[in-house]
Amino acid sequence: MRGTSLALGAAGLAGFLALGEAVPRLGLVKEAYFPPTSRIAEALVDEAGDPAFWTALGDTLTGWALGLAIASCAGVVAGVAVSVVPYLREATASTIEFLRPIPSVALIPLAVLLYGTELRSVLLLVVYASFWQVLIQTLYGAQDVDPVAEETARSYGLGTWARVRHVLWPTALPYVMTGVRLAAAVALILAVTAELVIGAPGLGRQIAVAQTSQAVPEMYALVVVAGLLGLLINVGARMVERWALAWHQSVRGEVAV
To answer: What pLDDT digit, counting tens, does each position of 6-21 carry?
Structure first.
């Protein structure tokens, strides 16, 4: 079954690349705006030989990793605190629901005013967007705690920290891992967007420079790199999730199937 899925995935990718080669060759779109796959591949090879490309890739990964780490830690700590402290959830619910829908891109002017085109501007946007993914999932996980288990822990005299460690955390961890996986994708999107709009160092700025320079194949090549980076991040996040939840029934059932 797994081999069939991989084969179908490879066939779908090959078909997509063939379509990308054929559409401009047949004149359905102008090559000046959408070059064939082969030209994009050539541009990608050229980019791989340019040290500036690897520097930009490193800048993007730095902003993504730092932002994701900060957002994940803050989201977990805040989610557990809100769930454990009496009445804090009710006190913060309206504030969370007010702040959460605000698009991170709306904070770009603020980020530029505060930090210009520095890494901190990217981190501000990445952390803000990713934080909510982890926080909300942590809150959902805390809500899913079995009341009987919670009362049993209290009856045995377990303190707040012991209940968090032995009751709340095992229940919330699958939700937390889902939140981190979603936040990883959001963090990459915001990192590239910030670089593209603000001009902070990274792949986004390289894409903007290629576009303004009319280097269309190079621009598409960099977009492909961003897409591949997103794919690798998603695969890596799923691997970490399976490793962290190897004890959980959902992962054990997935492996068994």
So the answer is: 777 778 878 888 888 8
